[in-house]
Write a structure and sequence with these properties.
single chain, alpha+beta, four-stranded antiparallel sheet, 23% helix, 21% strand, globular
């Protein structure tokens, strides 16, 4: 899960898909969560299996969270949508509201897939740190 704090941090806990952050200056940052752990089996307390990492989340930044169904969506030639396309799509639409960026990414994703069947869930969550 993700916890957003008032001191301009987002803290991912546990292993997730890589987090995409479009910074206010237009730079794109990829946050790898592979070292944050992966709980296996049923445990009442998973704290010993996971770690956290703070991500700076300042004014104007946009965070894109996604399931692997987004980056692994294939076109008719079995080419994946991939993380780079996701980055390009988000960066291209930076400056809009989170809903507009999400809609644009979905449009690019569907254009990539074309008539192919979707085999996995496609989930996108965008968090926009509104400029003051």
């Amino acid at each position: 899960g993700f916890c957003v704090f008032e001191d301009e941090r987002v803290t991912p806990a546990g292993q997730n898909e890589d987090v995409l952050v479009v910074r206010a200056d237009g730079e794109v940052e990829r946050i790898d969560t592979v070292d944050l752990g992966l709980p296996v089996g049923r445990e009442n307390d998973i704290s010993k299996f996971i770690d956290t990492r703070d991500i700076l989340f300042g004014s104007g930044d946009v965070i894109v969270l996604h399931t692997d169904g987004v980056t692994e969506a294939e076109d008719q030639d079995k080419r994946l949508f991939g993380f780079e396309r996701l980055c390009q799509s988000a960066k291209k639409r930076y400056g809009g509201r989170a809903e507009e960026i999400k809609t644009g990414i979905i449009e690019d994703l569907m254009a990539h897939i074309g008539v192919q069947k979707i085999n996995e869930d496609l989930t996108l969550v965008l968090i926009n740190h509104t400029k003051q």
